[in-house]
Design a protein that fits this description.
Length: about 575
Amino acid sequence: MTSFGRVISVRGSLARVGLLASNQLGVSEVRATVGRFVSIRCANSTIVAMITEVSSEGDLPESGTYIASASVDLLGEILGGPERPKFQRGITNYPTIGDTVDLITSQELRTVYAPSGSDQIDVGTLQQDRSVVAYVDIEEMLSKHFAVLGSTGVGKSTGVSLLLNEILKSRPNLRIFLLDVHNEYGRCFGDRSLVLNPRNLKLPFWLFNFEEIVDVLFAGRPGVPDELDILAEVIPVAKGIYTQYQNGDRVAVKRSESRGAGYTVDTPVPYRLVDLISLIDERMGKLENRSSRIIYHKLISRIEAVRNDPRYTFMFDNANVGGDTMADVVSHLFRLPANGKPMTVMQLAGFPAEVVDSVVSVLCRMAFDFGLWSDGVSPLLFVCEEAHRYASADRSIGFGPTRKAVSRIAKEGRKYGVYLGLVTQRPAELDATIISQCNTLFAMRLANERDQSLLRAAVSDAAANLLSFVPSLGSREVLAFGEGVALPTRLRFKEVPVHQLPRSEASISTVPSATSGHDMHFVGAVLERWRGATSSRDAPSDPGSNDRTAARPVLVEAPMLQPSMGLDPDRFSLLKKPLR
């Protein structure tokens, strides 16, 4: 076999190769370019390297043997000889001047990417050689977190569906929780997943900590300090009252002297809204200054406005009945026991826009806390779609507790069996501390220069030069880096079965429906849902308040469209998404 070239210099993990004249090479060798793997034949091993630069300029030996030179990164080596070849990262035997360099063979690539055990998943094939299967080590990918990055329309959601389905096959007992921002994964996992949305979710308001419940009551705006002081005082007392009821101690007590049985505002124990409002009203009645009572009145108005808003039923259903349902909620959310459905798909598009951040914060926090207090005996993978929305790099935007909850999983989750998967199209807008905790990256096409810069900073491997391919990657093509893959690799995700393809419930066809003649029925149904979704029934008016007692137009579940109208239900899937 004719050599591709020879080593002409070595420096650290880099080497320079002199390329032989084209008349000595075959057609396939002539096409060698940036991103191709080569093998350097040493005395005791075969070094695997990647071409990062090709140039016909610079200092070349005067012999005329070489027509150009190439820079290569030394990535690893194949040891054990031809009988028992085994690949390992890093270099123990450095090449010497004059060592021969060849384009890597298919067999050598298979040795590099051969599965080292049963804990591997097949995600596609190498771009350089489609006959070589690309495997990912699940244990390394999960235990050290992973991220899928890519612009809209490059197959990012399909890649996520592929990875999660392969993980479910390999780890059937691993629980997975997916935040589905655009309601597109509902059908991807078949009968192995439980799909939750505002219609079937029960997330009691008392599971929200103080910051989260304040965010709900004030519709995402900063709370009024005087009202926050009142809430911080009465919530622990309301929890203590509920505990007394549950213990059968119904003897009247002076509530003003109650200390809440040692509870704090963040203790996840039940309390009833009727007790909370009663405590506020009681304190208001003791005030002689009428102007001071306005603060209490506004706070009561806020609580009642949210409680009576039909969009918040998932939080305030049976708010005055009580009942410690925390065990049932945790079991239902995080699939304990799984009952054949180890995965939860939380569809967020139907929730009121003002409360989505708080809901995500509660879910992240509960996932971590359950792992913490259970000593990680039941591992959970928490996948966060559109992660930049909840953990923004800009601390002035977004909801602080949500960023804190996601960051806590990223930094400490692996100790307690809570693993993180981030999916985002704008990695530059994602908190750098959080993304730096992801040790396996799947980078698809990214056109934005800021996103590419962040990716270059995040990749510490010697093959960071691969990132020059990021702006030109094709659909389903991905650069895989980090602990989960044998080497930094340009690969192509394999085809995903049709029934596993993500499909947004808000997708709109440009072809009119065959039943589009019923225009007045259509408009009437839309208006009924519109009015039902944006009204707060029985909400008291508070003209002096600066909060949003009237909700923004958010189209969610309201009076359902009846099949008798002759309308195509798929045409109305858009009505489930919130207007931004």
